[in-house]
# Entry
Amino acid sequence: MKAIRLHHTGGPEALVLDDLPEPTPAAGQAVVKIEAAGLNYIDVYFRTGLYRGELPLTLGFEAAGTVTAVGSGVAEVRVGDRVAYAGVLGAYAQYAAVPADRLVALPPAVSARQGAAAMLQGLTAHYLGTATWPLRPGDTCLVHAAAGGVGLLLCQIAKMRGARVIATVSTQGKAELARGAGADEVILYSEQDFEAEVKRLTDGRKVQVVYDGVGKTTFAKGLDCLAPRGMMVLYGQASGPVGSLDPQVLNAKGSLFLTRPTLAHYVLTREELRARAGDILGWVSDGRLRLRIDLEVPLQDAAAAHRALEGRHTTGKVLLIP
Ligand code: NDP
# Structure
């Protein structure tokens, strides 16, 4: 089978199309014939070496397709089931062996491409908006990079929960997309001082929560956008890692909370995974959550997809099609 592997970390050219044997399922695993794999910013961190894995490695944490084989002891899925998953490395491939307890069934109305587009960024938006800071009416949240994969979904979930959404994006085109996802206010943080704009838009009251997947270029100012006892949710670093922080800063800026969450800790059990995925796929199925699949790229062109994502040219989801 074909797979995109990293033999060393580096630029997009480090993504190499290799021929590998088709996987066979170990105990507790199912083999999935992948119809679509999701591109996520974490793939860039692994490729560049910001996050480390044992090389060579097959990149990719998200896919959907059909179960073609199961190992001993697997009760969760059967051959022929349509499934999706997130958080298991090895998705940039034609087949992947996946722990069966990480697979969720695709509803009949949700295609494999939609499943691959919904899982990782959808589960992330879900836990950010419902668990890390459970948004409720009366809250105002600041969502950075709101036209991105997580951003568009988080705006929609925040609106479902009755919050006011202030979004940041870098271009007018992205601003339109953020508004389409429900953002009440959109700040062009490439041109405007987002801290001053947040203060203006909230009459100085500021926001209850900042969702920051951008990191280096936004983190410090984001702390100044928070109302007393507000929460900084630093969930990524698309612009680069954030440096160290003196905890006293949280006191001085208003008894703030700081968390650096990751999806794995919000889908710890199969029950939690099924509950979050059930919401997300159910909302996709009934039209309450709209997916934006921006690009569908052949698997062998993964490098071009990485260039587009890192170059801030993508909006919503990028899929790799094996
Ligand atoms: P996006 O589609 O959001 O792409 C990243 C966006 O970040 C860009 O489109 C761009 O939007 C913005 N950005 C700002 N500065 C830069 C920069 N210097 N270089 C590149 N992009 C920049 O990606 P994802 O939806 O996949 O991920 C968004 C964030 O969420 C990432 O940080 C990712 O690591 C994180 N994440 C965290 C998870 C967790 O559980 N902790 C799980 C999933 C994702 P603009 O042009 O509008 O500025």
